[in-house]
Write a structure and sequence with these properties.
Structural class: mainly alpha
Order of helices and strands: HHHHHHHEEEHHHHEHHHH
CATH class: Mainly Alpha
Number of strands: 4
Radius of gyration: 22 Å
Strand order of the largest sheet: 1-4
């Protein structure tokens, strides 16, 4: 068992390294295929967002359709810190993560005793509350115009300092954050805490009967997921140099759900990563052909849900599994024929 787990760990480590290497080389080749460098920044930020969201949906089975609220809270908190306190990269990010975590913890107090459709509907309600506040609280959020001209603070770590004014520099900073989030979440979902979350997803009632404090686990994972959304939101506001209410809307919250499901978040840790890449490539490739690209992406999503609900990652796992079974069958037949000849 330990040997199998070590092999799996090495395989996943290679996947992480491969993903990060491909992303690290992205500025070198992305323009040659007709895309633009800023796309890499968007993809990396939304991968962080998707991985944190999948901790809630894929691993815990808790559907949140208002998660954009925490993404937006992180964006506004970062922007307000830079504009009204002072420019600081790490303090601004810490403020954003803390604000999103506190908001998520408060909301989770009302949600954690709910299940299924009631849980989902309440996430929509709270998401709309935060969206409405962001539009109406003009003195704090800027209303429908949002916060504009948010600076990109320099990366300062002891004696080292680097500007993040260019999209390439910002991309590599976001890539480092993505790497940290990948490793942290992988360890989290494979810890005893992560195993309890999966037990809650399988059967919440049985998990409670076994003796786990289901309410506390649901509260904790919701708050952690909200904090990661806030982290992604802070990076997004830095990239856009603005924060606006649209990122908190029900529409924006639905996009991260689509990304996670079409990628296969329910069956694979890598589902959100795949889903984010597919979404942004579809947006730019299909968007170059037709203005109704979102309609076509929506149709792809509907077909995936109907015929491949396990998503792209699940379909790949099935293909690899069937390939392994075919290989085993061929070896068994070859062994049988060889024995017959003897």
């Amino acid at each position: 068992m330990a040997s199998g787990e070590s092999v799996a760990a090495r395989w996943v480590s290679r996947q992480m390294v491969l993903l990060l290497v491909v992303l690290a080389t992205l500025p070198l080749w992305i323009e040659s295929i007709g895309l633009y460098p800023y796309l890499g920044v968007e993809i990396a930020i939304w991968m962080i967002y998707g991985l944190g969201f999948n901790l809630l949906l894929g691993y815990s089975g808790l559907p949140s359709f208002g998660h954009g609220a925490f993404f937006g809270i992180g964006a506004y908190a970062f922007g307000l810190f830079q504009l009204r306190v002072f420019e600081s990269l790490f303090l601004g990010i810490a403020c954003a993560v803390t604000a999103a975590f506190v908001a998520g913890a408060i909301v989770a107090c009302f949600l954690s005793h709910r299940r299924g459709i009631y849980f989902a509907l309440m996430t929509i309600a709270f998401g709309q509350v935060f969206w409405f506040i962001s539009i109406k609280w003009h003195t704090l959020t800027g209303g429908e115009d949002g916060l504009l001209n948010i600076p990109r603070p320099a990366f300062e770590l002891g004696v080292a300092s680097a500007g993040l004014g260019s999209n390439t520099a910002l991309f590599y900073f976001v890539l480092v954050v993505l790497a940290v989030v990948l490793v942290a979440l992988w360890r989290l979902v494979h810890s005893p805490f992560g195993k309890v979350l999966q037990a809650i997803r399988q059967n919440e009632v049985r998990a409670r009967f076994v003796g786990y404090n289901v309410w506390l686990f649901k509260w904790t994972v919701f708050a952690i997921s909200a904090a990661i959304a806030g982290l992604a939101g802070s990076l997004f506001s830095m990239a856009q140099q603005s924060a606006y209410p649209d990122v908190m809307s029900l529409h924006a919250s639905g996009i991260i759900v689509m990304m996670t499901l079409i990628g296969g978040g329910f069956v694979s840790f890598w589902g959100p990563v795949i889903g984010v890449a597919v979404y942004f490539l579809a947006r730019d490739v299909l968007g170059a052909v037709t203005e109704t690209w979102l309609l076509w992406f929506g149709l792809i999503f509907v077909l995936a849900v109907l015929f491949k609900p396990e998503g792209i990652a699940g379909a790949w796992q099935q293909h690899v599994g069937s390939g392994d079974r075919r290989s085993l069958a061929r070896r068994a037949v070859a062994g049988f024929l060889s024995a017959g000849r003897k």
